[in-house]
Design brief:
The complex is a heterodimer of chains A (about 160) and B (about 650).
Chain A: E1 21-26, H1 30-39, E2 48-53, H2 61-69, E3 74-79, H3 90-108, E4 115-119, H4 125-142
Chain B: E1 4-9, H1 21-29, E2 34-40, H2 46-59, E3 63-68, H3 71-84, E4 92-96, H4 98-102, H5 108-126, E5 136-138, E6 142-146, H6 150-161, E7 165-170, E8 184-185, E9 190-191, H7 192-205, E10 209-213, E11 215-223, E12 226-233, H8 248-252, E13 258-259, E14 268-269, E15 272-273, E16 285-286, H9 292-296, H10 301-305, E17 318-324, E18 326-329, E19 333-335, E20 352-354, H11 355-362, E21 383-390, H12 407-421, E22 426-431, H13 441-450, E23 455-458, E24 461-466, E25 471-477, E26 482-488, E27 490-495, E28 497-499, H14 502-510, E29 537-539, H15 549-567, E30 571-573, E31 579-581, H16 591-595, E32 601-610, E33 613-622, H17 632-636, E34 642-644, H18 649-660
Parallel strand pairs in B: 1-2, 1-3, 3-4, 6-7, 6-18, 7-10, 18-29, 20-27, 21-22, 21-27, 22-23
Antiparallel strand pairs in B: 5-30, 8-9, 11-12, 12-17, 13-14, 15-16, 19-28, 24-25, 25-26, 31-34, 32-33
Helix pairs in contact in B: 1-5, 2-3, 5-18, 6-7, 6-15, 11-12, 12-13
Classes of the chains: A alpha/beta (about 160), B alpha/beta (about 650).
Chain lengths: ~160, ~650
């Protein structure tokens, strides 16, 4: 990987390295928030790919581990604001599970910044785009995720 | 392996301008399992849908992937399409290449590449889709309307007209809402009370409508067709059945210093009170914070004078459980108290009032019986200054970003009413823009300027100061580019409108989403303006955004027609994307039961054949009518027995793999 003067990874715009980011978005708030971002033509990097789930509590830690194994550089989980879950309490379960998972990933050597939980409502298109831009920048700075990758994928 | 058809939509130029749709169709056509791939200008049009149906028949497709706009937009449309061609409607996946691709990226190559990845993930998912069948659930044929203002009353009357039962829950002692407090309405200048009080009487007289006044919705559970609500009936300390509304108690009550809410606190009322003469229900209510008997145990005058024997100091709060098929939110609005606007002296001078307070000062049923007088001196003002957009259309944190919509019109109304009664009083309006879209609205405003001689000055007021026997107003005239120093006897602030504070709690209770200003969000800004994104919850009136009375009434009737659409069905088809448990994997640990917010999971003994062994095991069973399909149980299940139809673990894993490949 190329390093610039500040010893940071070259930004994505230079074409040298584009991190792969998986975003799990709940159908009722955050996926709709992503749609709102689209309707408002607010851009964020194309290397962020969204997977639609009914609720943030549908996201099994195994999905996140799988993403890292398959070469994702960052994973973000977005749900409804606390108290606003379409299923009343789903996002609280997600919050607890992710707290545990992220501390385990941290223990395994996956940097804390590679994983994130954000609450984004259907109306918050601007927040969605800003969060994604900021997260992409963070992952960009961290560089490629090498831990947890399925080594058989690499030649 | 499925036989998959891929259909890439141009959405006119919405997608095609940034995504090379032909290249996407070509690339996706090479994916395993894809037997047909094409692109078309408008996939959602009749001809686009026919193209899909023809392909299903011609190529014997078993799964369909549509690369188009958000599934939140057209998933239902395309499910119907493939269903009419004989395919199970759930054998469909949509890749959202408009909102989440073409609209956010400018680089064509980059967007095309992303669209291909998104299509690949959808193909990977549809490979694992299974046909699903919708369940039928019964509908409780009664509606709940939260709020008894003009919006709530109109909705309730229309639903009742169609023959269904309606409950109105109103937190105040009377229905009628803000409209009952208004003096006249624009643009016709007809008396507000004269049109709203008959509605109140109609509502109370309608045998299909039950009014729970002085009550609040405490909790709502359930889903469309099957809501259960807990209504908290606050104690009035008066038996509403016995009270005749004679008002004798209110004349004898010695506690007279409570602010009169109906008159916006401009005068006082007694501890036992009837909000106003036309209140519905016309019964007295005791304010427990002011009542001497309730606070100290001494007094009891009202009980002595009440001939009907209606006073009941021992009355307790009551919780009422009711079932509903649909819920309408009509929680209305408040005007902000412009206490943060010290420059306008609202806190310090009694002659600076909000427009709703001014409305009461002008009203024949108000504290001055409709005689215009300065609150501080009781004299007729010589000059009134109206300030527009106080707290609206601003960017500072104390301000609302939106336009409150009704202020331009009611200010023109106020100025005209003043001029009508007292032609010698000067009226000056400071505005940023005058907004009068609406039938006969601009004509109305022009009448204020041209016929009544109301001064309209474009510019904002910087400061109001207490002068000698008058208020000194400093303002700028932007069109003449000069500073103005005016003397006024009264200043009326067109304070911003905000949703009622109870709305947030109700929104959370109903899991109905709200925008950043706490107005309820509609399911679609243009096409589903009276429905909340939560099925079975509908929106009526100001709780959804600022609007005037005719708009509120139209929306109220629209919400009612949507409710009637739900209640007239005997059964509703439910979402089949729900949890199910594999009895051979279930270890009976009960963890799924503990996380289920709906109580949809129970345990029963079942005969299970596992690896050739027959045995009775205690396994989880999902009640399909209750499960809402959130998936909380699927992640909790340690043995991997629980899965979600439509969003199965292997489907999501396949998407992850396709994206990360």
């Amino acid at each position: 990987m190329q390093l610039n003067d500040t010893n940071q990874a070259v930004p994505a715009e230079s074409g040298a390295y584009k991190p792969l980011i998986v975003a799990f978005c709940c159908n009722w708030c955050s996926y709709a928030g992503a749609d709102t971002a689209g309707s408002s033509r607010l851009s964020y990097p194309s290397n962020i790919k969204i997977i639609r789930v009914p609720c943030s509590c549908r996201v099994n830690p195994l999905f996140i581990l799988r993403a890292f194994q398959r070469g994702a550089d960052g994973v973000i989980l977005c749900g409804c604001h606390p108290g606003d879950c379409h299923y009343t309490t789903g996002n609280y379960y997600a919050r607890r599970r992710m707290t545990l998972l992220f501390s385990m990933l941290d223990y395994l050597g996956i940097e804390r910044e590679r994983t994130r939980v954000e609450w984004i409502s259907a109306a918050e298109g601007a927040k969605f785009a800003a969060t994604m831009n900021e997260f992409a920048e963070t992952i960009n700075r961290l560089g490629k995720n090498r831990k947890l990758r399925d080594l058989r994928c690499e030649i | 392996m499925q036989k998959i058809g891929v259909f890439v939509c141009w959405c006119g130029s919405n997608i095609a301008a940034t995504v090379d749709v032909a290249a996407v169709a070509e690339a996706l056509g090479k994916q395993p399992g894809v037997v047909y791939a094409t692109d078309y200008q408008y996939m959602c049009s009749a001809s686009g849908q026919n193209l899909i149906k023809d392909a299903i028949r011609d190529y014997g497709l078993t799964g369909v992937v549509i690369c188009a706009c958000s599934p939140r937009m057209h998933e239902a449309t395309f499910r119907k399409t493939i269903s009419s061609a004989g395919l199970n409607p759930y054998m469909l996946e949509i890749a959202n290449i408009r909102e989440q691709c073409s609209w956010i990226h400018k680089d064509r190559e980059e967007a095309t590449k992303k669209a291909i990845t998104m299509g690949t993930a959808a193909i990977a998912k549809v490979q694992l889709n299974t046909p699903l069948t919708q369940m039928k659930s019964p509908v409780t044929k009664r509606a709940l309307v939260i709020g008894g203002g003009i919006a709530g009353m109109q909705t309730a009357l229309d639903i009742a007209d169609a023959g269904f039962e309606v409950d109105i829950v109103e937190k105040k002692p009377t229905i009628g809402g803000k409209m009952a407090q208004l003096d006249k309405t624009f643009p016709t200048l007809d008396c507000s009370s004269c049109i709203v009080t008959p509605k109140m009487v109609d509502t109370a007289a309608n045998e299909k409508i039950t009014i729970f006044s002085y009550a609040e919705v405490e909790n709502v559970t359930g889903f469309i067709g099957n809501f259960k609500a807990t209504i908290k009936q606050k104690p009035r300390y008066v038996d509403a059945e016995k009270c005749t509304g004679c008002g004798l108690c209110t004349t004898k009550c010695p506690s007279k210093k409570s602010l009169n809410e109906f008159n916006m606190g401009l005068n006082t009322r007694t501890a036992i009170y009837i909000p106003f003469a036309q209140a519905v229900p016309l019964v007295a209510t005791i304010d427990p914070d002011a009542c001497i008997k309730l606070k100290t145990g001494k007094c009891g005058l009202c009980e002595k004078v009440c001939e009907a024997g209606a006073i009941d100091y021992a009355q307790k709060e009551e919780l009422i459980e009711r079932e509903y098929g649909a819920v309408v939110v009509a929680t209305g609005y408040n005007q902000i108290k412009p206490v943060q606007y010290e420059e306008y002296l609202y806190n310090q001078s009694r002659d600076v009032v909000t427009s709703l307070e001014f409305e009461r000062l002008m009203s024949a049923s108000g504290p001055t019986a409709g005689h215009l007088q300065c609150p501080s001196t009781g004299k007729l003002p010589r000059h009134i200054v109206f300030i527009q957009c106080v707290g609206s259309r601003g960017t500072a944190c104390r301000e609302k970003p939106y336009c409150s919509k009704v202020c331009c019109m009611y200010t023109a109304k106020h100025a005209m009413l003043v001029k009508d009664h007292y032609p010698e009083v000067e009226c000056t309006v400071f505005y940023i823009d005058v907004r009068t879209p609406g039938k006969n609205f601009d004509e109305f405003y022009r009448r204020a300027v041209e016929q009544y001689g109301v001064h309209y000055i474009k510019g904002m007021v910087g400061k109001v100061e207490q002068g000698d026997g008058c208020l000194k107003v400093q303002a700028s005239d932007l069109l003449d580019n000069r500073q103005l120093h005016l003397e006024a006897d009264m200043v009326v602030l067109a304070a911003a409108i905000e949703p009622d504070p109870s709305a947030r709690k109700i929104g959370t209770m109903l899991t109905a989403s709200m925008d950043t200003n706490d107005f309820f969000s509609e399911a679609h800004a243009k096409l589903r303006p009276v429905e909340s994104p939560t099925a079975g919850v509908f929106l009526s009136g100001m709780c959804q955004g600022p609007k005037d009375i005719p708009e509120t009434v139209s929306q109220a009737s629209a919400a009612a027609s949507k409710v009637i659409g739900v209640l007239s069905k005997d059964f509703l088809l439910s979402n089949p994307c729900i949890a199910h448990s594999d009895p051979t994997l279930c270890n009976g640990c009960s963890q799924c039961q503990n996380v289920c917010a709906y109580g949809a999971i129970s345990y029963e003994d079942q005969m299970v054949v596992d690896k050739g062994v027959r045995e009775t095991r205690r396994v989880a069973v999902v009640n399909e009518a209750i499960c809402q399909g959130c998936g909380a149980c699927t992640v909790t299940c340690p043995s991997g027995a629980m899965d979600l139809k439509g969003f199965a673990s292997n489907q999501i894993m396949a998407e992850v793999d396709a994206i990360c490949n």
